[in-house]
Amino acid sequence: MSPDSTSAKAERDVSARALTARSEPVDAAALEAALRRHLRGEVRFDAGTRALYATDGSNYRQVPIGVVVPRDTEDVLAAVALCREHRAPLLARGGGTSLAGQCCNVAIILDFSKYMARILEIDPERRIARVEPGAILDHLRAEAEKHHLTFAPDPATHDRCTLGGMIGNNSCGVHSIMAGKTDDNIESLEILTYGGQRMQVGSTSEEDFNRILREGGRRAEIYSGLKSIADRYGDHIRRQFPNIPRRVSGYNLNHLLPENGAGSGRHRRHLRHRS
Ligand SMILES: Cc1cc2nc3c(=O)[nH]c(=O)nc-3n(C[C@H](O)[C@H](O)[C@H](O)COP(=O)(O)OP(=O)(O)OC[C@H]3O[C@@H](n4cnc5c(N)ncnc54)[C@H](O)[C@@H]3O)c2cc1C
Hints:
Helix content is 37%, strand content 14%. By secondary structure, it is α/β, with parallel strands linked by helices. The chain has 3 domains: 85 residues, 2-Layer Sandwich (Uridine Diphospho-n-acetylenolpyruvylglucosamine Reductase, domain 2); 72 residues, Uridine Diphospho-n-acetylenolpyruvylglucosamine Reductase, domain 3, CATH 3.30.465.10; 61 residues, no CATH class.
């Protein structure tokens, strides 16, 4: 069995188990011990840490099972694999400034803001920046400014919100009226699913799409699943999907339609010239 088909099977098993495992309590002590054995970053299951992470910028309060502060990508891969093994829910967190409880839950919290917060590269020619998910918006803007560029979406929390959290919330701000929301300014993402599938995603031309399908495995399943939603429900989405300018919760089903850019492989410039 290829590694990809192994992870495809693992992910299907996870989905099936999720339906039955919802009420099963997580063995927090065993999970904590396993995380401590395998991670270089911080593993914090003490009452003080759990209280600190029990809320975000909202009025909600949910005490997490524990908190992981990953040092690097390897830590994230290991933490996700161990949570999967122990059937523990996971929640990513950046600045934690969410207003609707997005960042608190009875889960293992992965806090990207401490160690995985670097601006990796700025390419002024292509007007593209490569960042880790915990990078703070103002740090990116300060680096981009050296090239007379900026990242346009600018929530009021710009001095602490992170790019990962901005993507999760599809953050806006006064300048997003002019230059788009966060989702309009993303070139590509490296993502990891709960089932362990790691992949680069972004604007996908028809040619790329066909190549991904030919390669097979879990990635192909995900891409063809999304396409089949558009094929089967496209007219329904066109007729009834609410036309609101910024969608935070739920699924951006309208972006699966060809008239909204799906399959076009379009590329944009994401850092804007300062005006
Ligand atoms: C006073 C105040 C003013 C605000 N003003 C604005 C505003 O003007 N415009 C606006 O758009 N918003 C605003 N917000 C909301 C919020 O600050 C922004 O949306 C901000 O960009 C969120 O960034 P964050 O790093 O704090 O995200 P978080 O709150 O940490 O996370 C947001 C979401 O992203 C997910 N997430 C975080 N990191 C990752 C990751 N690495 N991988 C996968 N998912 C991840 C989280 O699970 C969560 O669902 C405001 C909030 C406050 C408290």
